[in-house]
Structures are given as C-alpha cells and as structure tokens.
Design brief:
This protein is an alpha/beta fold and 268 residues long. It contains 10 helices and 9 strands. The protein has helices at residues 44-52, 70-74, 91-101, 109-116, 131-142, 161-176, 189-192, 213-219, 230-239, 251-262; strands at residues 4-15, 18-29, 33-37, 59-64, 77-80, 149-152, 181-186, 198-203, 206-212. The protein has a 6-stranded mixed sheet with strand order 5-6-7-3-8-9, sandwiched between helices. Strands 2-1-4 form a 3-stranded antiparallel sheet. Strand 8 and strand 9 (206-212) form a beta hairpin. Helix 3 (91-101) crosses helix 4. The protein is globular, with a radius of gyration of 21 Å. The two termini are 36 Å apart. It binds adenosine-5'-diphosphate.
C-alpha cells in the first residue's frame, strides 16, 4: 500500500462570495511526482497555499504524514510559489539570505543546492539571469534544507523549450536521486505527461479527475504512425471506412523538431 504523505479532505475556500475551491479531496503518496493540471484561475495556487498554511480555508481537513500536528511536517515541505529575489545580489547571496531566514545552520547548504541546479559557476547578479536560471534558483531555494516534499507552482511558466526540459530533468533528479515527493502544477497537460506519475485535473475549483500515467496511456486507444503522405493516409482511412476521431499535433515531436533544429536535447 502506498503511504499518503498529504491528504486533503473536502476542502472549501472562498474569496468573499467567490468560491475558488469546492469539495477538494487530494491524496499524495510518498515518492510520487504528482502533476496538478488546470487552467489559469482554476485554483492551483490557492490549493498549495492552503496546504502550506499560507492561506485559510472554511471547510474540510488536512492531514500531513499521519501526524497529529501539521506544523512539524510543514517544515519538511519546500516550495516555489512565485519568487522574491534581490536583483542586485548573486544566486549565492540570495540563497544565503534565505538560508539564514529559514534557520538552516549548515553553511555548506547553499553550495550544495547551487550544484544540484547547476548554478554554482554563475557569478553574475540576479537581474542578468535568463528566465530558466531564475526558475532554477527558485527551485534551489525550495530545496534548501533537503525537504521531503517539494511543491512547485508552474515552474515552467514563461520558459523556452530548453528551459522546460531543464526543469523536467531537475524534477526527475530530485524525485529519483533525492527521494523527494514532488507536486508540480501546470496549465499545459502535455508538459508533465512524461514527468508525473499521477495527474489531478482541477477545473473551476473542483478536482475533476485523478489519473495515473499508466491509465492515461491505456486510455489512449491510439498509436502514432509516421506516414510519408498525410493526405493519402487520410483518404485511405476514409475509403476503408475508418473514422478519424482525433488528429493532433504531437507536442513531443515539436520539441524534438526544436532540439534537432537548434541543437541541445533533454539529456544535456
Ligand atoms: P491558479 O493558480 O490555478 O491560476 P489561483 O489559485 O491563483 O488559480 O486562483 C483561483 C481563483 O481565486 C481565481 O479566480 C483568482 O482570481 C482568485 N483569487 C486568488 N487569490 C485571490 C485573492 N487573494 N483575493 C481574491 N481572489 C483571489
């Protein structure tokens, strides 16, 4: 049996008259990479803030790691929800600031996390960083103190394909090599398709569906066939009486195309 590290039951939250979370039941298992997918405004950030104790809720309950007291376990959760870094400081100086603020005694901790996110060689100040570097610094800050659970709110927002691939690779490393349970949100389904083990689909404050990667793959009664002539293939199917139920541009192939065109790949 998988062990639930986070269990939210029947959570309701409103801002004034506006209900932003409705009867949300969410279970996260230890060791999972859980992808929370939903459009902008669906309630992902609010859900994370409630989980972290940064925001109040009206109804429901939260149980963290079967503990009576959630406060103790919250110290083991690292998170990236937006970020506040000083533009005139280097990555090292910014992290040193947060290390002290978080009460982490080990002075080597900043260097350790900088190496993990591969920013240890960077000497310039924050204002000169690419979006990808800024996000990686945000993740470095979230993993200061080596948390058990990592919450990343839209970590790939605004990144180019290489930046997105870097963040994905980092999530897999933190989960695989450091044993962190990762909860990551995105408003783009395809983005986490090969990274997350389980997906929660949130829409207008309701968690409408939870599906594992295996179920998702099984559900798709489809194979990918690369053809020499798409028009003739379409016609042949039509003539054979086979209906095309869905035709879509494959997101991965676009990415492959991008990397082939410009060099670099996901494994670099
Ligand atoms: P997401 O992270 O999925 O984009 P949010 O959790 O940020 O969604 O927002 C959910 C809804 O709650 C949105 O309609 C948003 O406008 C509203 N909302 C978020 N924060 C506040 C706030 N502090 N005051 C009022 N409404 C808010």
């Amino acid at each position: 049996m998988a062990e639930a590290v986070i269990s939210m039951k029947e959570i309701e939250k409103s801002y004034g008259k506006h209900k932003v979370l409705r009867d949300v039941n969410l279970e996260i298992n230890r060791g999972d990479i859980y992808g929370l997918i939903g459009k902008n405004g669906a309630g992902k950030t609010t859900l994370f803030k409630i989980l972290l104790g940064l925001s109040e809720y009206e109804k429901g309950s939260i149980q963290l790691e079967n503990q009576k007291n959630n406060t103790a376990f919250r110290k083991k959760i690292g998170f990236l929800i937006g970020s506040n870094f000083f533009s005139y400081m280097t990555a090292r100086q910014n992290l040193e600031y947060y290390r002290v603020l978080k009460g982490i005694r080990d002075k080597k901790e900043v260097e350790r996390v900088l190496k993990i996110v591969e920013l240890d060689q960077v000497k310039s100040t924050y204002k000169n960083y690419s979006m990808g570097m800024k996000q990686r610094l945000g993740i470095a800050n979230a993993i200061l103190g080596n948390p058990d659970v990592l919450i990343l709110d839209e970590p790939t927002n605004g990144l180019d394909p290489q930046g997105i691939a870097d963040v994905r690779k980092l999530i897999q490393k933190l989960n695989g090599d450091y044993g962190m349970t990762v909860i990551v949100s995105s408003h783009i389904l395809g983005e986490l398709q090969n990274t997350a083990h389980r997906f929660g689909i949130i829409n207008e404050g309701t968690l409408v569906r939870v599906i594992t990667r295996e179920e998702l793959q099984k559900k798709e009664d489809a194979v990918r066939i690369t053809v020499s002539d798409l028009e003739r293939a379409r016609k042949a199917l039509e003539e054979a009486g086979v209906e095309i139920l869905e035709e879509k541009q494959d997101a991965n192939s676009l990415e492959e195309f991008y990397f082939k065109l410009l060099g670099g790949n996901e494994d670099e």
